[in-house]
Amino acid sequence: MISDQKLGKLALLIAIVGIIMIYISTLLLGSAEMKIGNITSRDVGKNVLVNGTITSYNVNNGNIFIRLSDDTGNMTVVMFERTSNGQKLNNGDIILVEGQVNVYKSELEIIAKSISKELS
Questions:
Q1: What count of other Cβ atoms lies within 10 Å of the Cβ of residue 70?
Q2: CB of 70 within 8 A of CB of 51?
Q3: Bigger pLDDT: 81 or 50?
Q4: Could you give the CA distance from residue 109 to residue 67 in angstroms, rounded to a whole number?
Q5: Which string of DSSP letters, residue by residue, matches the chain?
Q6: Which of 40, 18, 32 has its CA nearest to residue 97?
Q7: Which of 62, 66, 56, 118 is nearest to 91 (CA)?
Q8: Which of 29, 51, 55, 68 stands the most exposed, by the fewest C-beta atoms within 10 Å?
Q9: Which fold has domain 32-117?
Q10: Could you read off the pLDDT of 62-97 as tens digits, one per residue?
Q11: What does pTM read for this prediction?
């Protein structure tokens, strides 16, 4: 029979292991900060953080289409109406995009979950 003291220690050990596993999975599933030019087809489906300057900005049916550039390249960023929350952005704005790498018509793009303006 297991004593109450040993059972308490076992429960504590299991709780600590569980917390460590949750922490590690959070690190692995988080968004990786990347330069645009370093994003490849191997990153499709991954969450990324990208910082860059808006070189083209269009709104179509409430969806936002951005051409984002940094010192390594450029890429299309799409933010659908349901997540755009009335974002007010302009050409030349420096933004931070968090989103998922996707392929559309054989081109890599980022489907944005969030966009925030950076202070310049």
A1: 17
A2: yes
A3: 50
A4: 10
A5: ---HHHHHHHHHHHHHHHHHHHHHHHHHHSPEE--GGG--GGGTT-EEEEEEEEEEEEEETTEEEEEEEETTEEEEEEE-HHHHTT----TT-EEEEEEEEEEETTEEEEEEEEEEEPP-
A6: 32
A7: 56
A8: 29
A9: OB fold (Dihydrolipoamide Acetyltransferase, E2P) (2.40.50)
A10: 889 999 999 999 999 999 877 766 668 889 999 999
A11: 0.72
How far apart CA 12 and CA 75 sit, in angstroms, is: 48
The amino acid present at 42, given as its one-letter code, is: R
Instruction: Give the model's confidence band at 57: pLDDT under 50 very low, under 70 low, under 90 confident, else very high.
Output: very high
Average pLDDT of the residues in 26-38: 78
Token reading at 84: 């755009």
